[in-house]
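Morning!

This is the sequence you dropped in the shared folder:
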Amino acid sequence: VVNVVGPDEGRPMLLLHGWGRCSWSRDLQYLYSPLVEMGYRVIAPDQPGFGRTRGKRWCSRSETNYDEGGPVQVVEDILEALGVPQDRPFDILGWSWGGGIAIS
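The structure's back. Tokens below.
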């Protein structure tokens, strides 16, 4: 499940939840409205096995982030599916485990 709010032409802001959380947890959800008001297109996915998304839960250790089907690939696939060009700049904010994915 991917929550997408804001204008299609807005600068993408990718919000990544922490371990044991999801995209609609209060630690991220309260950011949606202010970011949209700033003109962002907020993209907040549930990683597989979390929230409303089925699938294998990945280890929260950073060394698994680049594994086949891992968190980094999930994020890349979501951006591609939403039509975000690879050369388009976007902002990213990660909470806890999502922060590790963000810097990967």
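Headline: The first helix runs from residue 26 to 29.

More detail when I'm at my desk.
O.
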